[in-house]
Amino acid sequence: MNATEPRRRWRPRSVRARAALAAASATAVVLVGTGWWVHRDVYRESTRIAEEQAETQLWTLADQLNEGVVPVHRSAVPYEVVATGRRTAVAHGGGMHDFGPGTRHVLPAPTEAKESGYLTIRPVRIPGRRDGNPGDGFDPANGTYMVMSTDISADELGGDKAAALGVAADARLRVYVVVLPDTAETITKTTDRLLLPAGLVTLVLIAAVAYSAVRIALRPVEAIRVLTASVTASDPRERVTVPATGHEITALATTINTTLQRLDNAAARQRRFVADAAHELRSPLTTPLASLEVALAYPERTDWPAAATTAARQTRRLQALAEDLLLLARLDTRTPAAGPETVDLAALASRLAEQYPLTERPLTLTCDGTAPAHVHGNPDEFERLLRNLIDNAVRHAAHRIQITVRNQDAWVVLTVHDDGPGVPTEDAEHVFERFVRLDDARSRDHGGTGLGLAIARDLAHRHRGTLTLAPRTLGACFQLRLPRVPAPAEK
């Protein structure tokens, strides 16, 4: 690897591995938190048990001393009984032997008087053994330990009991019991040793379960991927199997099937469009070609002005068809309109009605719209939309064409109504399809390309409007609805 390239961090690539890693990480955090809580709780509970054990031992020793009985040496809890006026311990056990020469008892004799039966607990430093002998198991190493103590007055015991204990009649005895920290530490360490492997096993088990669960859950996704990979642009007819479980993968499969259906429909429309375009281009190419071939074969008998006129007419038709095809291709790319402006649709319709040439046959073209009707959009595209509607009406009208523009709440409604043969109700939507041929009465033999209404509807949708065929008993009435906007002076 190049030294200048940054080192890439390792990350699992598959969803299964990432899910397993995420589950393991979350489990590790939970286990660490739980282990810390258990460790602390076990230590606190063990310490409490050790204190209760030491306190029980303390009162047991006090009861024995009050009876004049010297406690035995064997004890699970280290203890020592000392008295004033005596260098050696009255009694000891649990490993509290003489720790060295010159020190007859480990813990100090009472110097101040305390109430008998009063329990105190405080830290006391206990020296380590010089001989290294652990005794009965308690082996302090110059450490400080929590020690419980209580005092007993010898004069309350009586002379006989004090003599039995080997102390003077006016002596004061103090009973010490050491709270062993080893018990809590041992229990806590044992718990930790049990929790660690259990946590590791749990961690591995959860990661494996997460990996397997995600792998099983992704099997339908893999099947969808394999089937989708076989779909091609020319043949998008494959469909994925929709699981009956009703979870997110079902929604994914349904969405993919819907997308594939849209692609299939688009491919079918494209194939039909290409076939129709090829068919429409054949006629304006074949007619002038045949006329020119006949003229070239018999030049002396050819009416050259008529042949040139026919060729020019077919060429204009071919040019119009090519321009319509290019415009449809641009509209299909969904390119946003450049520089949207505020257009007065009423003024535009009135101007087109006045300027439209009606030379072929007598027709009356009127426009009814006195109030301004402002919309947002491209003026050239609006003009092309209205021209297409007027062209369609002129080709099929018998005597009259009526253009109406009015404001209706938040919409501007424009209608183009002709008194021609009309369109059957079942063909109300088909007339907006590309290269659709209806009956002879509304065919394209009058010079149309068959794309005008399709272009007009696409332009209406491009400007967030609609173009529909309104039902009429006489002729055809095309209704354009566009969002109304305030006039520039009203803003």
From TrEMBL:
Q: Which UniProt keywords apply?
A: Kinase, Membrane, Phosphoprotein, Transferase, Transmembrane, Transmembrane helix, Two-component regulatory system
Gene Ontology CC, one term? plasma membrane
Transmembrane segment boundaries: 20-38
Q: Coiled-coil region(s) at which residues?
A: none
Q: Name one GO molecular function term.
A: phosphorelay sensor kinase activity
Q: Which CDD domains match?
A: HATPase (cd00075), HisKA (cd00082)
Q: What is its EC number?
A: 2.7.13.3
What does it catalyze? ATP + protein L-histidine = ADP + protein N-phospho-L-histidine
Top-level enzyme category: transferase
What domain of life is recorded for the organism?
A: Bacteria
Which residue range or ranges hold the HAMP domain? 215-268
The record's listing under Pfam families reads: HATPase_c, HisKA
| Protein name in UniProt | histidine kinase
